[in-house]
């Protein structure tokens, strides 16, 4: 079963604009992570936010976590063509000791 | 040069055959995972292992088998019981279960 569900499934924006992706999950978690996947490649870890954190930044990335709503958002500011990829959230559910991924958001940055 | 290596990159299987996908890591990670990804879809967990000589079924374990005899190796066998094996298979490892995962480059399996 998929723990996380990303929204939207696909997003297309112009270079320089900000991109926001959302993730909802079902059970209590220890942490939530965001990953990036270029077409046909493995996933690359972007950022991890723990259940007791509300916001985290890394370069042009900003992640928020609302445990009361069981949701997270990933904001990419000042997007570049190289940001074109699929983005996945993954949750480490409390007590599960495994990493479960959502369906992903396919982001396209138009030059 | 630390990392996680999957081989082969492409694999073709005839119907009725078993095939084994290799996954090796030299990161000294305890946890390892196998995921399946179908076109345009997310990752579905097949099997995971938190420690050597122990592993658990994920959400779609039917038709697959694994072993974890060494810390650095977690091979996945796709058996003939797996009715629709054509997919992209991804192996990952993390220092602890549920922490930041490092992924291999994947194996694309095609049934011919």
Task: State the gist of this model.
The complex is a heterodimer of chains A (111) and B (112). Chain A has strands at residues 4-7, 10-14, 19-25, 29-37, 43-50, 55-58, 61-66, 71-76, 85-93, 99-101, 105-110. Chain A is an all-beta fold and 111 residues long.
Task: Provide a descriptive summary of the structure in words.
The complex is a heterodimer of chains A (111) and B (112). Chain A is 0% helix and 60% strand. Chain A has 111 residues and is mainly beta. In chain A, strand 4 and strand 5 (43-50) form a beta hairpin. Chain A starts with a strand and ends with a strand. Helix content of chain B is 0%, strand content 51%. Chain B has no helices and 11 strands. The mean pLDDT of chain B is 94. Chain B has strands at 4-7, 10-13, 19-25, 31-37, 43-51, 54-57, 64-66, 76-78, 87-94, 101-103, 107-111. The chains are: A mainly beta (111), B mainly beta (112).
User: How does the major sheet of chain A shape up?
Assistant: 6 strands, mixed
Radius of gyration of chain A from the CA trace? 13 Å
Number of strands of chain A: 11
Q: Provide a count of the helices of chain B.
A: 0
Helix content of chain A: under 10%
Our measurement of the CA-to-CA distance between the termini of chain B, rounded to an integer number of angstroms, reads 35 Å
Q: Mean of residue pLDDT of chain A?
A: 93
How would you sum up the major sheet of chain B?
7 strands, mixed
Question: What is the structural class of chain B?
Answer: mainly beta
Q: Give the beta-strand count of chain B.
A: 11
Give the number of helices of chain A: 0
What number is the mean pLDDT of chain B? 94
Helix and strand topology:
The complex is a heterodimer of chains A (111) and B (112).
Chain A: E1 4-7, E2 10-14, E3 19-25, E4 29-37, E5 43-50, E6 55-58, E7 61-66, E8 71-76, E9 85-93, E10 99-101, E11 105-110
Parallel strand pairs in A: 2-11
Antiparallel strand pairs in A: 1-3, 3-8, 4-5, 4-9, 6-7, 7-8, 9-10, 9-11
Chain B: E1 4-7, E2 10-13, E3 19-25, E4 31-37, E5 43-51, E6 54-57, E7 64-66, E8 76-78, E9 87-94, E10 101-103, E11 107-111
Parallel strand pairs in B: 2-11
Antiparallel strand pairs in B: 1-3, 3-8, 4-5, 4-9, 5-6, 7-8, 9-10, 9-11
């Amino acid at each position: 079963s998929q723990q996380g569900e990303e929204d939207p499934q696909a997003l297309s924006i112009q270079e320089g604009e900000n991109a926001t992706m959302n993730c909802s999950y079902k059970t209590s978690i220890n942490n939530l992570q965001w990953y990036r996947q270029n077409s046909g490649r493995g996933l690359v870890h972007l950022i991890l936010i723990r259940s007791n954190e509300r916001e985290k930044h890394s370069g042009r990335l900003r992640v928020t976590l609302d445990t009361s709503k069981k949701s997270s958002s990933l904001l990419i500011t000042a997007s570049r063509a190289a940001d074109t990829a699929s983005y996945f959230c993954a949750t480490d559910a409390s007590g599960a000791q495994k990493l479960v991924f959502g369906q992903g958001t396919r982001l396209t940055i138009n030059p | 040069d630390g990392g996680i290596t999957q081989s082969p990159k492409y694999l073709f299987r005839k119907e009725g055959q078993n095939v084994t996908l290799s996954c090796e890591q030299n990161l000294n990670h305890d946890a390892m995972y196998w995921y399946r990804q179908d076109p345009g879809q997310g990752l579905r967990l097949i099997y995971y292992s938190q420690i050597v000589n122990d592993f658990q079924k994920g959400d779609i374990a039917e038709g697959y088998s694994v072993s974890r005899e060494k810390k650095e190796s977690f091979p996945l066998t796709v058996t003939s019981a797996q009715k629709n094996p054509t997919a992209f298979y991804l192996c990952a490892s993390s220092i602890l279960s549920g922490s930041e995962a490092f992924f291999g480059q994947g194996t694309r399996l095609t049934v011919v």
